[in-house]
Amino acid sequence: MQSKERSVQFRQKALSKLQSPEELDLPVRFARPPGRLVLAVTVVVMAVAGFWAVTGTVSSKVTAPGLLTRAQGSYLLQSPVAGQITEVHAEEGRTVAAGEPVVTVRTGEGDRAVRAVARGRVTALAVKIGGVVTTGADVATVERIEDPGEPLVAMVYVPGGNTATIPVGARVDLTVRSVPQQRYGVLRGRVKAVGRTPQTRARLTGFLGDARLAEEFSRQGDPIAVLVRLERSSATKSGYVWSSADGPPYELESPAPLTAAIHLAAQRPVEWLLP
pTM of the predicted model, to two decimals? Predict the structure, then answer.
């Protein structure tokens, strides 16, 4: 009986506390400051984000493979006849004139010279004395050189969907595989021209003189060719501008595979929301 009376008294006291005006106001009073703080922080963050979206800029870049070469590219010299190689007249690295014999092939009708199609430098020989070639077999790769003093260029092959935003004059950083990047940095250049039509594998092979490179550059579909002009410098041994002070202490050889990072024009974030 006494236990029941105590329970009733406890309930009455509890109800009286909840019904007290002073007590009812306490939970509301403690909840208001944190709510106002959250609202204030949210407003400030939104204001800063809006200001940055209108006045700030975001830079991006496109990375793609390419080749350090001459502007005219290279060609693949092939044998017009079948037979055995009896003489090799050219050497890798040597310049040959148009019409100059590169190799001699002995056929059933006598010896036949395979001659250079255009002036250039032999960058690769695919045959040697004693070897047998068939009609259309690869003999040599020749880099076209009309003027020995002509500067090198970079041909960069960008997947077709990534070229719409590449402007002429865009800054390009070129990592040449044959030059240690950690020691000499990257080669500097600017976009000179952006192709309009995709490069098929056959067209790539015709310009590069190398079917293997053509396959590598077209792995993601037919790419768009981007011509990059290298920045010249009389203060470096290579004759070009590098991210390091001097660059490599030797002249650059071509053709040379590279990776290009094309810097796109900076955009304001608010432009992403505009049609």
Answer: 0.69
